[in-house]
Amino acid sequence: GFLMQTSQMLRKICMRNLVRKYCRGLTAERKVQLQQKVVTSAVFSGKKEGYLESLSQPFLETRLKENDLNPKVLQLIRGENIKYVTPVIKYDRNGFKARERLLVLTQSSAYVVEMAKIKQKIEYSTLKGISTSNLSDGIVVIHVPEDNKQKGDVILQCEHVFETVTKLCILANKQSVVKVVKGSLRFRIGSGKEGTMVFTVGPEPQVFKDKTGQLTVV
């Protein structure tokens, strides 16, 4: 029994040393990757299609560099540390027209940017929720409070949905507000109005306004 106990203790010590050695050998970049992937797993594992395939794809620090942004935009958000920039498609809340935009995440806020204009600013402290569907689409809805500052919730389509949502919820420190929804979700258009988005499966991916005026994501 004594030898058995000693053997188990040695095994534990050996394992601990191996883990410590492995962690010490990790580059800072690899550590960040692993920390981010842990958050992605907590938010999406077993909930959203495409999660398993995303595991092998390392997250990039950013999709666009700071100097890819228009100087006017840089001027407007100067003093804020830019952490992540990615191209997105933004859908208008009313007619659902698709528009090419950039999503800029700083240390304190998310910005929806059109060329040289900031179209919407969401301070992380006011962010109410982040919704995605359980299907393989890249739709993300950023829910904002009902106040005069905000025009309504932001509907985006992101190519790298797991990466973008992970970066957003880590920077905002709001992992708990991410929801993976089935079937449909409600979003705020502004001035007390709400809209509905429907998620469905079909032969080819598309996003359109259906006859009932809902945004349908296939």
TrEMBL record:
Organism: Falcunculus frontatus (Eastern shriketit)
Entry GO MF terms: cytoskeletal motor activity
Originating gene: Myo1h
GO cellular component, one term: myosin complex
Highest taxon of the lineage: Eukaryota
Residues annotated as domain TH1: 48-218
Listed name of the protein: MYO1H protein
Pfam family, one: Myosin_TH1
